[in-house]
């Protein structure tokens, strides 16, 4: 499979960090609150159930990539169904990724206004973050993944220390009843929230950039398990400190949790450090979204380079970010999109795998 112009290979650790950060962006939004509202005190089980449900979908991606020497899924769809289907699927994925990134930017800007820059206009924050994300995405996945790897250790250290300190002062009995609304209701909620890991579709697009199939496999499983672990820990800590139903009323849960840290004369007000971790992960994650949308457009149109698509698509994402009239509308719409987007992001690799398994036969000259 021919590589795109000026694209290098990505390392396993760097790509694991990048995919994980892309998935975990929503952890710092309102999603922990939504999980609490839907599953009650059993919300910590939802990420685990969702991860178990998503693993078979990743196996479909991994087996299709292995069969075709880690070609991108859009390239494989062109091989199966022709260039017009490839073009349509590329356009569809591009639009979905742009909408996804646009709403993430809007919620990110609302958080910055609430915590750091209350007098700054939302347009200034959105445009500034867009310029930064374009800069990060322009040099390709190799440089983007290395940037993520440089920032990740400090961000995850601050995050884990904060979570530990918050959990230490919580109350275990707040987690009861242990099964929330019941076993069946919790399982059903876990299946509905499969969209927690929808960003793993990035692996469908960057499969050609891995040197070995085993690295591709490890990155996929590693990022899913790591993300599920953090989602689960956050839900546990949230309910240790906010008894239900108060947990489902918290605006930005992680920020509100960080504000609870108070070790008397030793340490107080750790939330600025949490804001650093949140901003770092969110900025890199949104930049990955820009890159993924440009890459989908490139692969769908069979263009030689993704860079010409980057700025126009980023501008479209900015337009999407201004569509919601309020932060509440942005949050509600983003939650709805998280339920709908997996239909495409998960459905495409499953259909491709089924077609490969039951209908595709290699040409005689390639056997």
TrEMBL record:
Mention any Pfam family matching this sequence: Spore_permease
Please give the family membership noted in the entry.
Belongs to the amino acid-polyamine-organocation (APC) superfamily. Spore germination protein (SGP) (TC 2.A.3.9) family.
Keyword Transmembrane set for record? yes
What is the protein's given name? GerAB/ArcD/ProY family transporter
Lineage, broadest ranks? Bacteria, Bacillati, Bacillota, Clostridia, Eubacteriales
Record key words, sorted: Germination, Membrane, Transmembrane, Transmembrane helix, Transport
Entry's localization field: Membrane
**What transmembrane ranges does the database entry give?**
9-29, 41-61, 73-99, 111-138, 150-170, 190-210, 222-242, 275-297, 309-328, 340-360
Organism, scientific name: Heliobacterium chlorum
Question: By its UniProt entry, which InterPro entries does this protein fall under?
Answer: Spore_GerAB
The way it spans or sits in the membrane comes to: Multi-pass membrane protein
């Amino acid at each position: 499979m021919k590589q795109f112009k000026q694209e290098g290979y990505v390392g396993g650790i760097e790509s694991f960090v990048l995919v994980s950060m892309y998935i975990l962006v929503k952890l710092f939004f309102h999603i922990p609150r939504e999980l609490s509202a839907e599953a009650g005190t059993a919300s910590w089980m939802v990420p685990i159930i969702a991860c178990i449900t998503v693993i078979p979908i990743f196996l479909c991606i991994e087996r299709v990539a292995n069969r075709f020497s880690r070609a991108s899924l859009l390239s494989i769809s062109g091989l199966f169904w022709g260039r017009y289907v490839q073009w349509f699927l590329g356009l569809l994925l591009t639009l979905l990724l742009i909408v996804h990134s646009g709403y993430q930017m809007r919620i990110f800007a609302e958080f910055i206004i609430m915590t750091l820059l209350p007098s700054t206009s939302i347009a200034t924050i959105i445009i500034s973050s867009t310029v930064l994300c374009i800069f990060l995405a322009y040099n390709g996945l190799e440089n983007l993944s290395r940037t993520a790897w440089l920032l990740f250790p400090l961000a995850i250290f601050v995050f884990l220390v904060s979570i530990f300190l918050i959990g230490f002062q919580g109350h275990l009995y707040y987690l009861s009843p242990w099964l929330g609304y019941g076993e069946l209701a919790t399982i059903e909620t876990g299946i509905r929230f499969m969209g927690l890991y929808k960003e793993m579709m990035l692996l469908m697009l960057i499969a050609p950039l891995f040197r070995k199939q085993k690295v591709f496999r490890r990155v996929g499983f590693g990022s899913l398990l790591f993300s599920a672990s953090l989602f689960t820990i956050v839900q546990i800590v949230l309910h240790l400190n906010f008894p239900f139903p108060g947990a489902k009323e918290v605006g930005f849960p992680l920020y509100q949790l960080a504000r609870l840290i108070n070790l008397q004369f030793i340490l107080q007000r750790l939330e600025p450090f949490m804001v650093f971790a949140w901003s770092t992960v969110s900025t890199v994650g949104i930049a990955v979204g820009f890159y993924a949308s440009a890459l989908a457009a490139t692969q769908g149109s069979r263009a030689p380079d993704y860079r010409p698509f980057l700025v126009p698509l980023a501008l479209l994402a900015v337009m999407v970010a201004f569509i919601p009239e309020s932060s509440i509308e942005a949050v509600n719409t983003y939650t709805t999109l998280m339920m709908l987007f997996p239909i495409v992001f998960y459905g495409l690799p499953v259909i491709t795998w089924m077609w490969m398994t039951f209908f595709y036969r290699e040409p005689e000259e390639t056997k």
